[in-house]
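User: I'm preparing a small set of examples for a lab meeting where we compare how different chains pack in three dimensions. I only have the primary sequence for this one, and I'd like the structure in C-alpha cell form so I can line it up with the others. Please keep the answer compact; I'll paste it straight into my notes.
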Amino acid sequence: LSAPRMLGWLHHPNTENFPSKAVLAKLQARKFFKPPKFFTFESNPDSHGKAHKIFCAVYLPPKSFKPPYKAIVSVYGGPEVQTVMNQWTLTCDIRAQLLALKGFLVLKCDNRGT
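Assistant: Understood. Below is the C-alpha cell output for the 114-residue chain.
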C-alpha cells in the first residue's frame, strides 16, 4: 500500500523580511514523518566514578542515500528537561525531518538530564 497524501500547514515566523503566514504544503504522511530510532549509551565516569545513561534519538536519511552519511549532532545539556523521549514532538521535529530527507543523519542527545 502506498501512503495516502495529506495536506499540512507550515507556519513561517513573523520577521521584517518575511511576514507571518501559513503556507499550504503537500506532505506524504509516511515519507515525511518517520519516527526517530532511540538508543542509549553510558558516559565516561564522572569525578565520583559514576557513569550516566545518555539518551539519543537518530533520524536516518532515506535509503536512496548511501553511507557514510554526513551527520548533524544536536545536544541539549541544559538543566531540568529531558528532550529525548519517545513522544510525538520528536517525530514532528520539522528541522530534523527535513535534514534527514536531504541526506543527513541527525543525532539528538540529552546530556545527563535531571
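A couple of notes for your slides: Residues 19-29 have pLDDT under 50 and may be disordered. Residues 48 and 103 are 40 Å apart (CA to CA).

User: Perfect, thanks.
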